[in-house]
Amino acid sequence: MQYSISNWIYATEDLEKSLQRLAKYEYDAVELEGEPDKEKYEPKKVKKMLQQYGLKVSSIAGMYLWKEEIKRDLASSDKKIREQTIIYLFKCIDYAKLISAKLVIVVPAAVSKLAPSLSKKEDWKNSIKAVQEVAKYAEKKDILLAIEPINRYETYLVNSIQDALYYACEVNSSHVKIMADTFHMNIEERDIPEAIRIAGNNLINVHIADSNRCSVGRGHINFKALIKALKEINYQYALTLEPLPPVSDPYLALEGGISENIFDQYAAESIMGLKYFERII
To answer: Domain limits of the chain?
Structure first.
């Protein structure tokens, strides 16, 4: 399996410092924060650093936070917001192509928005229609879209693996698949390994954090059973680490409020634990 880390958890940290950490702990790839307009993600500089540290880009993590200053919401009742989000995803797809990433993560409704704009049915329709438009562009660029289910306490439209499968089926594109996130699955799924088996060959990315969102081994998720299920479905994509300390606001990382020592410790612990389970199964 490939091992990656989503760099949005490193907040405002210099990208080269993050890549040095991944190389130090023998990761294969990085999942880059989906902010292609930021100076730190200038393609030529990024490609040079990737080559220097022997890393690839496993995926682009689309960012869908609902804030006053920026609203990204594929399900919004406001056509202007939907169109802005579609354009944002076009940029993420273009960026993925430039740096040889294979997929872009899509969250069907804004994160931290907990109720529909109109009704869940209408928001679902709006979101499906928007992603169908994005999917056509992704097909032309040969970039996969990974639908991410997020727990009910952070968003409302697509929460479970089954929700994501229904959603991807309705979008009906060869380039729209789904992903899993063990932290969210711990809340939404009755049986995490079985949900992985149900996802099967539709699964193209897995975010990894323990039940408390910390690094592997600091909570109660059975990662041995998870790795076994992934092997059973012949999973060929990245295991993307996304651990955060147990803070009141999980997006504190975006404001740069987490110690660098924690970043190092979590990166080391997580890959060590996962590689152990991969080795013994």
So the answer is: 2-280
How crowded is residue 92: how many other Cβ atoms within 10 Å of its Cβ? 26
d(CA 83, CA 63): 15
Sign (positive/negative) of CA torsion 152, 155, 160, 162?
positive
Sign (positive or negative) of CA dihedral 268, 269, 272, 275: negative
Lowest mean pLDDT among 68-77, 156-165, 214-223, 249-258: 249-258
**What is the token pair recorded at 249?**
């606001």
Q: One-letter amino acid identity for 4? A: S
pLDDT digit string, tens, across residues 61-103? 999 988 777 899 999 999 999 999 999 999 999 999 999 999 9
2-280, CATH topology level: TIM Barrel (3.20.20)
Ordered DSSP codes for 4-47: EEEGGGGTTS-HHHHHHHHHHTT--EEEEEE-TTSGGG-HHHHH
